[in-house]
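Is it possible to get an amino acid sequence alongside its tokenized fold?
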Amino acid sequence: MAIVAKDSGTSQREKPTAGMHDAVCVFVEDIGLQKTTGQYGEKIQHKIVICWEIDEKLKDGKYAGQPFMVSNRYTLTLFEKGNLCKVLEAWFSKKLTDEQRENGIDLEKLIGKTCTLNLIESAQGYINVGGVAPAHPSNKLTPVCTSVPEWIGKLLSEAVADGATEPNESTENIPF
């Protein structure tokens, strides 16, 4: 009997176009301690996920008409050379002060804040957040999605330990 291979009919997942997009932050989620592998080997780092909705809408499927959601993971630190610090400073066009770095800031206050995202297509065809910049004054986006996506729960379940630390409580708005 012949072994026949056919197209399975599964289609590529729809993805947004690369380039600059108006966006709004919809979630900042703590996903705990995650094992990462980099040029210096494996390490365990406390990670968060920031999710944004962009101005481009899905065309097909169950979520047609909804905005695309893009995200990026960051190590939960305000170290001045860390990616999270660089993103916050670029987003709000201000350097973090030593006091802000030391006392911490409430990242959940990013939810609802607008920005401009530069989306870049990787060699493998993935769309990645290449940069975050201040919002254009015409950006009036507000969050549409109201429930945390299932894939974030999966990331949390993959945490290597319950190492989430309590954030510094702050009654101040985000300092930007």
